[in-house]
Each structure stands twice: as structure tokens, then as C-alpha cells.
UniProtKB/TrEMBL annotation:
CDD domains: AdoMet_MTases (cd02440), RsmF_methylt_CTD1 (cd21147). S-adenosyl-L-methionine binds at residues 109-115, 133, 178. Pfam families: Methyltr_RsmB-F (PF01189), Methyltr_RsmF_N (PF17125), Methyltranf_PUA (PF13636), RsmF_methylt_CI (PF17126). It comes from Anaerosacchariphilus hominis. Keywords: Cytoplasm, Methyltransferase, RNA-binding, S-adenosyl-L-methionine, Transferase. This is RsmF rRNA methyltransferase first C-terminal domain-containing protein. InterPro entries: Methyltr_RsmF_N (IPR031341), MeTrfase_RsmB-F_NOP2_cat (IPR049560), MeTrfase_RsmB-F_NOP2_dom (IPR001678), Nol1_Nop2_Fmu_2 (IPR027391), RCMT (IPR023267), RsmB/NOL1/NOP2-like_CS (IPR018314), RsmF_methylt_CI (IPR031340), SAM-dependent_MTases_sf (IPR029063).
Length: 463
């Protein structure tokens, strides 16, 4: 492939005698990756369930290299939210942000959701993940991926960091910034990025990155942790941005990356310019594309760490609970879960379940796509449950279920929106809403009558 001469000269200066080994990787194929959704299934159980050929990615406990030619994006298990397809190096930033239950977490540049889905899974339904992308169209794809993963404790926004700071200054325990960059590390995987590099280059993105980290520093509480990452090799976009961040008010210090084994054993190279704790990922040292990742802690008077001021798992309560619609209460009789009424909100007939940390948080005027778990809609004296609720539930959480096996041709027919005969799976006497599952994992809703399942799979997700 054609690479810009200026870029090659800069890489030769950066790599020295390793330059030829790095350049030779452009003649080799890249690597595909799959990350298991631990909210729904353990990595061990997924390997036993799946027929994919996979080998572990050594820097994350739930990531795998996909071998062979399987079209994993068209497998029904993908529709069940059991995994996310992600380039192996790109799994590193989320793996390096230590998440604890109850944390308030911000993914500042989150679309399309590869890192946000992992952060949400590691919260285990507690705290809140604010997933933001300044592009509204990209934020829509982000929302779909989070809902596909079954995430409910979310706030999906489409704002500038400056606007977010008006609502959340000093509010977050953890922040991940996978910053927009010149994409040098992805040229092998996405050659089209070379053209963007020629039009803009590192200097253009370095300015944007400094603006982003300036606001992120204000959004993070004292003692909080921040991961900064890019998919570029340029020191101007990496170490220079880190050193700028370290000089901001509040004081940031670099921490060693919390990896399963020492970074050097994984093939990660240390950062430059006094940022040795950061990790540089080069394709001639690892099985993956180029990446950069660093973990920093914001200073405080007592260097408190991450727990001070954190919302507890139980959280705070709004002073007045919503009077729940009768339609929801009738539907919820088949739901084997219960939630504090203070967490419910009703907007224009649409019912939501808010995360605890947002109960008393003013977000009026904030541009968001989703606040919490969208439960469904009250319509003409009936309640229609949402696709998001189906993906959030487990099979055992609902009274009526139809469970299909992956080899059953009805699975693909369901995903295409067809009506199904399911009398062999559930009594013909059963009526009403039914949770449709694949090998025990929810896919969506249907309505039963006389052994026939009327398809209620969300039209926007149909195959």
C-alpha cells in the first residue's frame, strides 16, 4: 500500500533500527477480534457455546482473536448481544480503566461503542455510564450497541465536552478518552485513513486533543482516573498531549497500566518524552494494529484515590416517586423483577428507569438520546415493551418465553420479522407478551396466541 513519504520519514526517526520490521507488517494480514459480553456470558462459557475458532487476546480477559473466515456479524449470537467485534489493540483502553461498582464513568468520544459497551458491562448494572459523542448520527449507532449489549445504567449524550462540563463538572470517578486522531496505527486496516492524514495530519488533531483533555480534566473529580488513548504513533498526539494534561490545574500523574502481566511481556513499548508508564502498541511487537494508551490520576489534597464521594450502589432517592401507569403494572405482573418507583420517569408515554446517580441530577437542556433503560411505551390502554428491555432481561426474568436453538431455522426467520409457529416450544393456551430467546439468551419480544408468535422484533434491527 502507498504510505506518505513524510509519514515514513517520521516513523524511521521514531523507530530507528526497528523501522524495517515495522514496515514489513504492511505486507501481512491484520487481526480480527471478538470481545465477549460478560454481562450475559462468561468467556469460558462462550467458548464452549460458540463454534468460532478463537485464541485469547493476552491483554484483556474477555477478548479473542477470530480465526478463519466466519462472518461473526451475521451470526445469531451477535443479535443476542453476546459479543462485540473489535480490533484486538482497540480492546486495550477500556481494559486499562479500573472500574468499580457504583462508579460514575464517562466515555467522552464513545461512538460506535466498542469501549463503552465494555465499560457498561464492568459496572454490573450499578453506577452510571455517560457515553457521549459529538456527532448525533454516530451517537445513534452508539446507543444501538449499548442496548444490544443489555446496558440499562446509561446516559447517551451528543454534546461538546464544554457543554457537558456545565452539568457534570467534577462529577466523574473515571473517564475514558479515545481521542480523535490522525489514525496512523490503522493504515493497514483502513487504508482510506491515509487520505485524511494527508489532508489534516497530527498537528490538526493535536489541537483538538488538547481542547478535549482540558475539559475532561474539569469533568473528573479529584483522585479520579482517566485513560487517554489514540490509534496513532505520533508523539505530537500522544506524549505531547499527555504532558500538556499533566500541566493542567488539578495535577495529573501517570500510573502503570493495570495489565494482566507486565506491559513489556505483552510486547507493549514504553512511552516517550518522560511518559514511560504509557504503552505504545506497534504491529511488529504485538498481534494487532498501532495504538497508544495511558492511565492518569487527577491529584487531590490527600491523593484520595477513586472512592471518595462516589455514589453508592443503592444511590440517592428522588423525593417523590412516579405514580406508575396501570398499563405498565399489568405488564409487570409477568416480570420477575422489581425496581424502586423513585427510579421511573414517564415522558410522552414512554417509560424509563433511571440509574441511581441521575435521580437528582439536573440534565434539563442537555442533548441526549437516552436516559437510563427505556422500558417501553404506553399506548391506548396497553403497554408495549421495548427492544432495550428485552436485551436487558435474562430468560428467567419473564414468565413466558420461547427458547430456540441456534440450529433452528426459526431463529433467522424471527430476526427477519416473520410470524412463527411455536406450538412445540410453548403451550397453545399461552397468550400475551413472550420473551423470545436463543439458547437461553433474549433476542426480543413476540405476542402469543394459539401457538402462533406474532413477531415484535424491533423493525430497525431486523435482518
Amino acid at each position: 500500500m502507498r504510505l506518505p513519504e513524510i509519514f515514513l520519514r517520521e516513523m524511521k526517526e521514531l523507530l530507528g533500527e526497528e523501522y524495517d520490521a515495522w514496515l514489513n507488517t504492511y505486507d501481512a494480514p491484520g487481526y480480527r477480534g471478538l470481545r465477549v459480553n460478560t454481562t450475559k456470558i462468561s468467556p469460558k462459557a462462550f467458548r464452549e457455546l460458540s463454534a468460532f475458532s478463537m485464541e485469547p487476546v493476552p491483554w484483556t480477559g474477555n477478548g479473542f482473536y477470530l480465526e478463519g473466515e466466519e462472518r461473526a456479524s451475521r451470526h445469531p449470537y451477535y443479535a443476542a448481544g453476546l459479543y462485540y467485534l473489535q480490533e484486538p489493540s482497540a480492546m486495550t483502553p477500556a481494559a486499562c480503566l479500573p472500574i468499580e461498582e457504583g462508579d460514575r464513568v464517562l466515555d467522552l468520544c464513545a461512538a460506535p461503542g466498542g469501549k463503552a459497551t465494555e465499560l457498561a458491562a464492568r459496572l454490573h448494572g450499578t453506577g452510571v455510564l455517560v457515553a457521549n459523542d459529538i456527532s448525533n448520527s454516530r451517537a445513534k449507532a452508539l446507543l444501538k450497541n449499548l442496548e444490544l449489549f443489555g446496558a440499562g445504567n446509561i446516559l447517551v449524550t451528543s454534546e461538546t465536552p464544554e457543554r457537558l462540563c456545565r452539568y457534570f463538572e467534577g462529577w466523574f470517578d473515571k473517564i475514558l478518552i479515545d481521542a480523535p486522531c490522525s489514525g496512523e496505527g490503522m493504515f493497514r486496516k483502513e487504508p482510506v485513513m491515509v487520505k485524511d492524514w494527508e489532508e489534516h495530519g497530527p498537528s490538526y488533531y493535536a489541537t483538538i486533543q488538547k481542547e478535549i483533555v482540558t475539559w475532561a480534566a474539569k469533568l473528573l473529580k479529584p483522585g479520579g482516573l482517566l485513560v487517554y488513548s489514540t490509534c496513532t504513533f505520533s508523539p505530537q498526539e500522544n506524549e505531547e498531549t499527555l504532558n500538556y494534561l499533566k500541566g493542567l490545574e488539578g495535577g495529573f500523574r501517570l500510573l502503570p497500566l493495570p495489565l494482566p502481566v507486565p506491559a513489556a511481556k505483552l510486547g507493549f513499548q514504553p512511552g516517550k518524552q518522560g511518559c514511560a508508564e504509557a504503552g505504545r502498541l506497534y504491529p511488529h511487537h504485538i498481534h494487532g494494529e498501532g495504538h497508544f494508551v495511558a492511565l492518569l490520576q487527577k491529584g487531590s489534597a490527600e491523593n484520595r484515590g477513586t472512592g471518595d464521594g462516589k455514589t453508592s450502589v443503592s444511590g440517592t432517592r428522588a423525593s417523590k416517586a412516579l405514580k406508575l401507569p396501570e398499563e405498565w403494572l399489568a405488564f409487570a405482573k409477568d416480570l420477575k423483577l422489581s425496581w424502586d418507583p423513585a427510579r421511573f420517569r414517564l415522558y410522552d408515554g414512554r417509560l424509563y428507569l433511571l440509574p441511581d446517580p441521575l435521580l437528582n441530577q439536573n440534565i434539563r437542556g442537555l442533548r441526549f438520546l437516552r436516559t437510563g433503560l427505556y422500558l417501553g411505551e404506553v399506548k391506548q390502554k396497553r403497554f408495549e415493551p421495548s427492544q432495550a428491555l428485552a436485551m436487558f432481561l435474562r430468560r428467567e426474568d419473564f414468565t413466558r418465553t420461547v427458547d430456540l436453538t441456534v440450529s433452528d431455522e426459526r431463529v433467522l426467520r424471527y430476526l427477519k420479522g416473520e410470524t412463527l409457529d411455536v406450538e412445540d416450544r410453548i403451550s397453545a393456551k399461552e397468550k400475551g407478551w413472550c420473551l423470545v430467546c436463543l439458547d437461553g439468551f433474549p433476542l426480543g419480544w413476540g405476542k402469543l396466541a394459539g401457538g402462533t408468535l406474532k413477531n415484535k422484533y424491533y423493525p430497525g434491527w431486523r435482518w
